[in-house]
Design a protein that fits this description.
The structure holds 3 protein chains of 3 kinds. Chain A is an alpha/beta fold. Chain A is about 40% helix and about 15% strand. Chain A has 2 domains: about 180 residues, Thiamin diphosphate (ThDP)-binding fold, Pyr/PP domains (Rossmann fold), CATH 3.40.50; about 130 residues, 3-Layer(aba) Sandwich (Rossmann fold). In chain A, the strands form 3 sheets. Chain A has a 7-stranded mixed β-sheet, with helices on both faces. Chain A has a 5-stranded mixed β-sheet with strand order 9-11-10-13-14, sandwiched between helices. Chain B is built from 12 helices and 7 strands. In chain B, the strands form 2 sheets. A 5-stranded parallel β-sheet of chain B has the order 1-2-3-7-6, sandwiched between helices. Chain B has a two-stranded antiparallel sheet with strand order 4-5. In chain C, strands 10, 13, 16, 17, 18, 19 and 20 form a 7-stranded mixed β-sheet that branches. A 5-stranded antiparallel β-sheet of chain C has the order 1-2-9-7-4, with no helix packed on it. In chain C, strands 6-5-3-8 form a 4-stranded antiparallel β-sheet, with no helix packed on it. The relative contact order of chain C is 0.10. Classes of the chains: A alpha/beta, B alpha/beta, C alpha+beta. Chains A and B meet through helix 3 and helix 4 of A and helix 5, helix 6 and helix 12 of B.
Amino acid sequence: MNITYLEAIRLAQQKALAEDPRVFIYGQDIGGFGGAFKATKNLAKEFPGRVLDAPISEDAMVGMAIGAAIEGMRPIVEMQFADFSTCGLNQIVNQAATLHYRTGISCPMVVRLPSGGTPGGGPFHSQSMEALYAHYPGLVVMTPATVEDAYTMLLEAVALDDPVIFCEHKFLYYHLKAEKLPEEALPFWKARIARPGRDATVVAYSAMLHEALAAAEELVHDGYDIEVVDLRSVKPIDTDTILASVARTGRLLVVSEAWPWGGVAAEVIARVATEGFGLLDAPPQRLNARETPVPYHPALWGTHRPTASSVANSLRQLLEL
Amino acid sequence: MTKEIARRSFRLMLEARVLEEKLAALYRSGKIVGGVFLGRGQEALSVALGVHLRRGDIYAPLIRDQAGRLAFGDTILDTLRTYLGSSLGPMRGRDGNIHRGRPSEGYHAMISHLGAMVSTVCGSLMAKRFRGETGIVGATCIGEGGTSTGSFHEGMNMAAVEKLPLVVVVANNQFSYSTSNDRQFACDDMITRAAAYGMTGRRAIGNDLIDCLKVLGDAVAAARGGEGPQLVVADLLRLVGHGEHDDASYIPAALKESPLGRDCLDLAQQALLENGWISEEELSEWRTIVEKEVEETSAKVLREPAPDPAEEDWNAFSVVGRNLSGEDEE
Amino acid sequence: MFPSPSPQSSLPLLPIIMPQLGESIAEATLVSAAFSVGERVEADTDLLEVETNKAVMGVTAPCGGILKELTAVIGESYAVGATLGYLEISEEDAERLGLNDAPPPPVEQPKKKQSPNTDGASSGKKLVKPTVSGLPVPAHAGGASFLSPRMKARMAELGLHAADLAGVAGSGAGGRVTIDDLERFLQDLERNTISPASSMRVAVADAMRRSWTRPLATVVLPVQLDTLLAHRKQQPVKAGPALYALRALSIALSEMPATAGRLIGERLIHPRSIDIGFAVEAEDGVLVPVIRHADQFPLADLVERYNRLVELARARRLPGSDTGGSIATITNYGVFGLTMATPIPLPEQSLLLGIGVGKITPFWDVEKKEFVPVTEAQFTLSFDHRVLDGGAAGRLLQRVAQLLSTPEDL
């Protein structure tokens, strides 16, 4: 049986709704329509009154979820696109993220962000927002790259007492399939060695993991054995696993679909440079999207963010240093 | 309208007034760091909402709601502790002044972004509804300026769409900081917004305790009875600066001298005396007791420790943060 | 250099090889070709002009033939041993030059590609690949001395310095030594007999390694010792020749103290007092006791002190106050029978005066017009060439020799 990344998310929500009466889902078009991407297909029917259509009010959606969470519910807010979450930015970063720190009461809310680029998405349907939210203390930011992680990590997100920004990648929704769903998994905050290697470490997450793996395969022909680390979550970052990998290889490339300034790649490199300087054989490198809004035309979009081929080229340069 | 509720309300107004005078004095003598925003002149409206709420209700007061907060169960002690940054206060120095609450008791701690609390109260009401709790009311207050924000709009709309038992009190005190109403909204009467959202609108005379108690009593009862969200608009005048750092010289003298500018505490006292619900002696006694309590509590809190950065849990930003800072186990 | 039959004819092709145009030359740039492809070339004529960092030189045809192909590009650099083109030659010449002999053993290829060509679009400019084995550092090895943070951390862990890696061939980018090279090298060492170095040995090694970071040079002057030896014979308590040299040097330095100065940046730091040390062999190392203010005491006053210091040093009981802080050192390597040496000054000093063994040597007596026997020793002055040039060093040494010729004034 082939389970897509999207189906894994749907199944996780179904399981959460079934097992925990505190869970409910709020978002635009998620009720009878099943959601813009069908992530809640049939769930409104199966769990009447718990999968609700929201007005186009991202601020109020999140504020409502916070209030419900204060009273002990476990709301899941589906933003139709990650790009619209900025309409609710204030509630996320100023109320949800600060609640526990200020009052000692936790805010167990999950905000699901359909993130990342697809051909023709354009500037407002393609963004990767993880760095923005990761910047604020108090938020957990998850960026699953596999079908299995989309499933287990969403369940973990619901179970966590902290607000979770769950960045699911739109391109992976239907492109990624798995045979079956796991019973257990690594805890959400642990990174995974997706491909063991020896000559260089590539740290990636979300859709870029697959570009990194493809690049690693390409580099086999060049005679190199590349290690690929899947961050899985970007907040918290599993620095220990990254440092252990760099200790093995001495070279680091970090790949992210988001923009370079102050992003996850910059954060990983800052940590490795600070805590693992003596492990490095070469300056650490990063590969990000170009410093422009995400372009609409597929020809432009194709070179806007890292691809297997640009990752491979960056690796070749890194290995020459 | 019962004598008890009027007496209780007046007592709370008096406490709020004396307490806030103390806060102003502490601020001017350099004991309070940060902003001090007082509700002088708005005690009647604020307390009228607070006394009609009960345990299990949700309350998100804002800046000028000291009286309402005391009505809902906040204390002079917690108030002073928060303003003076005592590590023993509910916010433990991590937030201050009016940014305080006890969310687990239904008393939300506001954030500074006006309008944001409307949807938060809605969310708590949704939770109660999910759990089958009935007869609950959620309430929040806001100035006329705060109603200009997008989050206010979204929250109001959502409350109406979800048919929640929400009471929103708009204290139209004529000025948002220095901005007069003509620069804040263009509709003739803010009460028309109620219909626009699909809510019931009610009007109260903001500085008249008796009128406020009646109108707010009706509004809360209507919400509690399942009639849907209620908007109460009350006209009054802010009798202090926007904050204690502001002298409000932009408020015209004419306005201050108009009926709008009359002090609600004086009016309430007069009303209680006229109705025979209190005597002069009792008034004087109350004043003495309240002043003593405020004075003693203030002296006690001034001796309490400030938060110690060395003792502070710097991983308290989240539950996950605390767990990951210690063990590796989840 | 493998013979390959040309596609058009059956005549053998002789590769034109970049010669070794100087001991330290590893590569040269092609400047011009004297002949065009297809032209006939006579033996021993210059085919090409190449430029090294020292001069422009010619590449000669080892025999006559036709310039069949020029693979080298003008303006590009090629390693010693690289093929620059082909000369079509006769069978006899091929036989004579031994083209049919067994090819030399293949050059070991480095594990990783050295090409920087990563863009997909070919740029044409390729990195030099060394074709000659035995060169310790390949051409274009810009990174040979580069130590990455990882390398430095590992070396610090092991207590190693760059000097310990001097003989390690690097397989990394730019010829640098990689962690793998290092670990393999260290593993390989285990196959040798290893004995621990004494702490004295390690201390001397450290001092010499640090001293060597400066450009050091040595000048030599033969000095006649007869007068000195006669003077010494008459003394009730005898001091070694080193003390005579020490006094002579101290007087000379008091006359020109800047010669014992140190250059720090662009400033010459003058010595504060003429304290001079002298080397004493102690077990497997050298200790350097010091005579303080040596310029202020006549020789006779220093003899006892000197002998006592020698004793203490040999017994390794030299007090801390009697060592360190000297501005120059005397070393008498003549006691080992050495005529000359180029010892290394201490890292904090600019001068080291050395005394070779005295030998009976014929000396031309101008008056007698005959060779007469004299006792002569080579005196060396090793110095930090940043502080002194040969001339100043020579003058200093001449003055020392002059002072030694009147030992009664020391």
